[in-house]
Amino acid sequence: MTVTFYKEANNKTYYYSIHDQQQQLFEGYEFTAAWGADLNKSRVKQYHFRTRRAMVEKFRYLMNKRKEDGYRLLYTFSRESKNDILTSIITEAAG
Question: Which of 41, 43, 47 is nearest to 19 (CA)?
Answer without folding.
Answer: 47
